[in-house]
Amino acid sequence: MRLLIVRLSSLGDVVHALPIAKSARMAGAKVGWLVESAYRELVEGNPDVDEIFFADTRDWRRRPLSLHTYSQIGSLFRRLREFAPDATIDAQGLWKSALLARAAGGPVALVEATGIPVGRRAPDARFLLDRVCPEAEAFLAGQSRPYAVYHPGASRADKTWGEERFAALARLLSADGRMSAVVSWGPGDEERARRMSSMLREARLLPLLPLSGLARVVAASSLFVAGDTGPLHLADALGAPTLALFGPTEPVRNTPARNGPYRSPDSAIRYDSETGAEEVARKAFEVLAA
Fold it and tell me: Residue 213 in contact with residue 238, Cβ under 8 Å?
């Protein structure tokens, strides 16, 4: 059987789709994956994926009439038809993923309809650790242990806890030299990360690393603290102890039980405007002691 997975973005959602490829490979399927080029590292080198297809939908929307766009789309469609999947799983459920899923020519189905049993639901991204990243190794060579990684940013401002509270939490966890602090960030998070690191005299600010480099730093940490954002789910898929911070937005849909770390669903806390660093620190110590 040839199975095509269409999960274009974003970081956390691509991570959450990894068990589909694992289950398909365990069932003997040949697996293809269509993903945005920005997240190629999450699929390249994955032992459960045989063939990778890249899309640049953001660039295509910016330049819809350019010859380059037409050429890229035409080449992608040809490759998808050559792959000739027996079934395609649209794990994104958006109009752009639906169009691309249909372009492959096979029936678009849910996992259950393909007959593939989903035996493992927890994502596993440890294949990223097989890649060499000199920048990450250089950073780790100068990092004291144990250390916690704090990721104050998020794709949406309403999912951020605030740099001041992150810094207060880091000071509590670092008291008496217990644990040093590393501040993590991604594109668009630069100012939040700088503000937080400026509040912590001994904290180290990560350089901008590829995902494989971020994975190496996170996997070696004793704790990764973040809101409901992609790096948190990557940390969970790497097996790092995580503390997930869920804010007051969308309390019905966006719950720790629904969107929290797969490997440790109890290592999440919901906060509101009254939640202080002391309360979150108590939860962090519970995670560290587990």
Answer: no
Residue of 99, 96, 91, 82 lying closest to 43 (CA atoms): 91
For residue 132, the tally of other CB atoms under 10 A from its CB is 9
For the full predicted model, state whether its pTM sits above 0.85: yes
Residue 211 half-sphere exposure toward CB, CA atoms < 13 A: 26
| 147 Cβ neighbours under 8 A, 6+ residues apart | 179, 180, 181, 182, 221, 222
Positive or negative: CA dihedral 259, 262, 263, 265: positive
The residue behind tokens 């096979």 is 106
For the chain, where are the E strands, in sequence order?
2-6, 30-36, 51-55, 87-90, 147-151, 180-183, 204-205, 223-227, 242-246, 268-270
Structure tokens at 265: 């669903």
Domains, in order of start, for the chain: 2-120 (3.40.50.2000), 129-289 (3.40.50.2000)
* Closest listed residue to residue 196, CA positions, set 206, 210, 209: 206
Element of type H or E holding 104? none
Helix (H, G, I), strand (E, B) or coil at 166: helix
Instruction: Give the pLDDT band (50/70/90) at residue 235.
Output: very high
How far does Cα 254 stand from its chain's mean position?
Answer: 16
Q: What is the rounded CA–CA span in Å between residue 52 and residue 33?
A: 5
Contact 237, 214 (CB under 8 A): no
Tens of pLDDT, residue by residue over 78-93, are: 999 999 999 999 999 8
Residues 6+ apart with CB under 8 A from 8: 34, 35, 36, 39, 55, 57, 92, 94, 96, 97, 100
